[in-house]
Amino acid sequence: MYPCAATVLVPRLCLFVFGIALHVLLHKILLFGQDMEKPLPSIVRKSSKFINKLGGGFVNLVIGIIPRVRHVDVDYTKWLGPDYKSKPFESRYRTPTYVMNHVCAYDGTLLFWALNGDISFLAGDFVRKIPLLGFCVEAGEGIFCPRGGSPEVK
Length: 154
What we know:
The chain is globular, with a radius of gyration of 19 Å. By secondary structure, the chain is mostly helical. The protein has helices spanning 2-30, 42-63, 77-80, 107-114, 131-139, and strands spanning 122-124, 143-145.
């Protein structure tokens, strides 16, 4: 097992770093001159989502995860009432917020793939200082918030 792991690890690590670097480089080019305090224009946002989806899919393949998205029809009658399915639902709408505890570092890349790159993250303010990760959160129109301090600061 060790010889195989040692020979496969190096190329996978190189491809992983290449995928992350390419993701950041493409976003740097796409967002050149963009004021990140303002909402992104529609074409830039769509391009960013496309980069997120492909980047997430590539990184998942490199680490050995083949994501498969399943849409499951669940009965929410208990919470939404008996006639919730009869109300019109447009396919362009999706759940606006996902609250989840992350299990591993790759949950973000899986969400990029599963949600077609249309995702932003709420990150601690300290993440802004992490070189690649801070830029990825900012490029995805994420929000940074302080995690500590007095109740007034929070």
